[in-house]
Amino acid sequence: MQEREFLPADRGMAFFFGRPQRARFWMRNTPLPLDIGFFTADGVLREVYPLHPHVEVHVRSARRDIALAVEVNRGWFAENGIAPGARIDREALRRALRAEGHNPSRFPLLTESGEGS
Asked: Which CATH superfamily hosts domain 12-89?
């Protein structure tokens, strides 16, 4: 979300990884305070961290099996009662991707083999 000065409520950015990994993000050129949530391939939220504007030090996931990272406005996870252990609504995510012109089958987390449970 570099250079972006406003993020509408209930919007964010999803980062899908081709294979599970330790994720790391920084906030170079990002003026918004954000939160980042890290999800494993089974669709479970495992970690949530604050991201501070313009900080160039990486925020790293503790886990090495992260399949998806989601950046949202600071406080969004807490305000919506979403904490580690919560499961992502895969169908809602598929719909959102289609609405943005993406093919959900390109994302392992959203394919049958990526269901995990």
From this structure: Protein of unknown function DUF192 (2.60.120.1140)
